[in-house]
Specification:
InterPro entries: DUF1091. It is a single chain. With about 300 residues, the protein is mainly beta. It has two domains: about 150 residues, Ganglioside M2 Activator Protein, Chain: A (Distorted Sandwich); about 150 residues, Distorted Sandwich (Ganglioside M2 Activator Protein, Chain: A), CATH 2.70.220.10. About 15% of the residues lie in helices and about 50% in strands. It has four helices and 16 strands. The strands form four sheets. The protein has a five-stranded antiparallel sheet with strand order 1-8-7-4-5. It is elongated and about 80 Å long.
Length: about 300
Amino acid sequence: MKSFDCTAHSKKYLTVIRCDVETSRNRPQMLHMVAKIIQPISKIFISTGVYFKHRQRLTFVYGTTFEYCEFISRNESRPSNPVAALVYNYAKHNFPQVLVPCPVFGIFNISNLSLDENMIPPFVTPGGYYASQRFHDKRNETILKYETEFYINVKRFQCKGTPYEISKLHYCQLETFRNGTQVIGVLLEIMNNLHKVYATGGLYIQYFRARTQLLATTLEYCQHNKYKKPIENAATKFALDYAQQHIPQILVDCPVKTGYMFNITGVRIDDTLIPAFVLPGSYYVELRVYNKRNQTVYHGFAEVDIK
């Protein structure tokens, strides 16, 4: 989760004690929202909106406004508003302690709520979402409003097939810091002169265990680097342009000599790494570099959620 913010509240009705997301290494994020309602509320309206997000564009998915006290007191009102029923059932399953009888009063405590895959409704497909929920009275005065959104996340990054035959991998790691920032690093030493360097890469859409190829290419880098001919293969051109923009330190002159160190450390994972044509979803990326004898120089993959 990129953010969770209580963006507005009425001091006449309540005091917000805590409203944040706690991010720690090697465990799910934890949501904390604690508020004290200091004035009994006999009518409280809930306005909910969920949007599919791609960069700065929001596409409406579903939403509704309903009066909570009437909803819980009249069973027949539930089927008439399926989105209200969805919101109610989701709260009942994940944080039932907030579903209190009216008038609403006292402490509302949602602490240490683990934000894991069990929190995802079954109908939500992979992708990025923005959601907001606003509680207001019959005069439309805001009691509390909160907003949340999700972001790109590298689920897994791994260098495979080690030890390599003609190179030495010193470092290969994905670090996730407490504030949610992720950084990738690879440190690779060349052990034999390379006069020809082949690279095969692919980008795949991933849904559970199924993968659909989106982009793939194989190129001989040294020949291209020597002659600088126009590139006809669109996937190859994209791969080289992407490397030039984001990791130019790997584009070195040939031959690549023994002892040369490829230092790709401190690469921060953020929105600028997302190609313009890539929509929100789950992706698998793989790259293998090898010589003319098919001996591996480097082989790695990443599983990425763009949200």
